[in-house]
Amino acid sequence: MKTSLAKNTRAGNQTSVKNDSTFVKCALGVGPVSIPPGLALPLLIFAADTIVGAEVAGLLAKAVRSVETRGDLLRVAYRFEGDSVAVMKSRVKSAIRESAPLGDADLVRVYYERLADIGERDTSRWDGPVGRYLVPLFALARERSASADPVVENQAAILALAMYCGTLAFENLIGKVRKPSRHRRHWPRCRRNTLAGRHDLMLHFVYSAALKLAAESGLAFAVGEFKELLDSSRGGSGFSFADLAADRAGIRLAETALDSEAGARHVQAALAGAADESVYFPDISGLAEGLDEQAFRRDYRSLDDPAYRAAVDGLDDRISRLPAYRVK
């Protein structure tokens, strides 16, 4: 559901909201059943009460100053007082941690600790290819899978990699992963690790693999939030097929590693012995980069253009030929 929300102005520790007379269309529904705008807000408050507790629902209800409907249009005016926004964020995060929707925190901790121990013992791994972490990580997954589910082990390994080499924000969707001793140190450590000699491509690869897990878990809101991390790594330099190749290679890693027992064990064997990143990452030579909007529209017009789809198919073909994803 979309609502028209007034502009915010801050004064002291309070947030005030001016009235806004703009109405927007309400598109809230449950399955095939559409919900009238007049019932949308009460149902959302009820959902908040059910999912994250009465305190958050109460703060939402208290913030609403007026609700108006006009046909299928809805307008909401609201004001959050004091620290109510911070309280709601804290409660929502706690609810997410308790439900641990993205993985087993205890198992992810096993892999995260391995990565952290490797980084502490050998600071030379802080530079150069990210394979310096991938190889021992999936060697551990392969070892543990002798008596465990390789799909579950791979999921934990990918999430640990996303935390260690990407962002600790993934911990909010997993549960308490880091030991207290790790909180006192500055993580993650992969600030200079690369793929194809570039740090930004490493981030695209790692984030995309983890986002694929979030999407499969139904955490659409998480995909949207962490997608911003991918976008920010582009630095406003324009559209890049190299970035897209890294995104799609990360997705393919997650797909293959979690699709079946055969695929899971194949990825473990391939990455545990990956002396060269060409085992799991495509050649990006010749790929167009730095395309501004005008250049992109000149060459491809839109994302539905046959020329663009052919370019993407070409990337997927490069990735499909990599040893890590060619499951027998």
Describe what is shown at a glance.
This protein has helices at about 35-50, 55-65, 85-100, 105-120, 130-145, 150-165, 180-185, 200-215, 220-235, 240-260, 260-270, 295-300, 305-320; strands spanning about 10, 15, 25, 30, 35, 65-70, 75-80, 125-130, 190-195. The protein is mainly alpha-helical.
- Mean pLDDT metric: 77
What is the multimeric organization of the chains shown?
single chain
Give the DSSP E fraction (strand runs of 2 or more residues): 5-15%
Q: What's the shape?
A: globular
Question: Residue ranges: pLDDT <50 for 5 or more in a row?
Answer: 1-21
Give me the secondary-structure category: mainly alpha
Order of helices and strands: EEEEEHHEEHHEHHHEHHHHHH
* Largest sheet report: 3 strands, antiparallel
What is the total number of structural domains? 2
Strand order of the largest sheet: 3-7-6
- Distance N to C terminus: 45 Å
Contiguous helical run count: 13
Proportion of helical residues: 40-55%
Using only CA atoms, what is the Rg? 23 Å
Question: How many strands appear in the DSSP assignment?
Answer: 9
Question: How would you characterize this protein structure?
Answer:
The chain is 55% helix and 10% strand. It has 328 residues and is mainly alpha-helical. The chain has two domains: 8-99, no CATH class; 105-325, no CATH class. It is globular, with a radius of gyration of 23 Å. It starts with 7 loop residues before the first strand and ends in an 8-residue tail after the last helix. Mean pLDDT is 77; it is low at 1-21.
